[in-house]
């Protein structure tokens, strides 16, 4: 459990059908966690692969910041219907008192009972209760280049010369599309690039200034920041050919 939480933070919790929970608290509001939370479940429950199908149906997200005008804390907490029943646990994990979480009814088709239940034979551990409540501090899967998330941008280490650096501008209202893009980009970049790379994912709804500075008119938009020249692709990049064209220039 959490003793105290900063006045400004991003929190994400991922539940299983059996009631286990992995969560993170990012006081810098920078890191991506959805993929890491799935990796944590894979490792601790010995799953054959990360259970991405739980996203976003079993997630809850809280964002707290201080209003610069009134200097009072503002908290926005949303949970998908399958996670709403865990409100007391969520409030304890994120030190929110008796906050009432708001339901998120988007992606209803992907969260259908029939679709979720179709994974039970492959991931039976997820339907069992292991009394797991675990805070994830960092990625625990096999070492991989850092990937930031759909909520807030990742603080990038200054890249070495000729290191590939990408920015992916997304909208939090299209979480399913974003996760699909992240999985595709990770697989493709891992198999294509010989060296390390950085991938920064920026939510245009919470960081409009960055989106405006980058002249983003639609999401998702992928920008290759380095090496120069800067290149971009607007729309879902879901083919190896498109990625090769982007990397080739």
Structure in words:
This protein is an alpha/beta fold. The protein has helices at 34-45, 81-84, 87-93, 113-117, 175-192, 208-213, 240-248, and strands at residues 9-15, 21-26, 59-66, 73-79, 102-103, 133-135, 164-170, 197-203, 221-226, 231-234. Helix 5 (175-192) links the parallel strand 7 (164-170) and strand 8 (197-203). The longest helix has 18 residues, at 175-192. The protein is globular. Mean pLDDT is 78; it is low at 139-161.
Indicate the percent of residues in helices. 10-25%
- The beta-strand count equals 10
Structure annotation, total helices: 7
Overall pLDDT metric = 78
Q: How far apart are the first and last residues' alpha carbons, in Å? A: 49 Å
Envelope shape:
globular
- What does the largest sheet look like? 6 strands, mixed
Gyration radius from CA atoms, angstroms: 18 Å
Strand % is 15-25%
Low-confidence stretches: 139-161
Task: Order the strands across the largest sheet as they lie in space.
Answer: 5-4-3-1-2-6
Q: What structural class do the secondary elements suggest?
A: alpha/beta
N-to-C SSE string, H for helix and E for strand: EEHEEHHEHEEHEHEEH
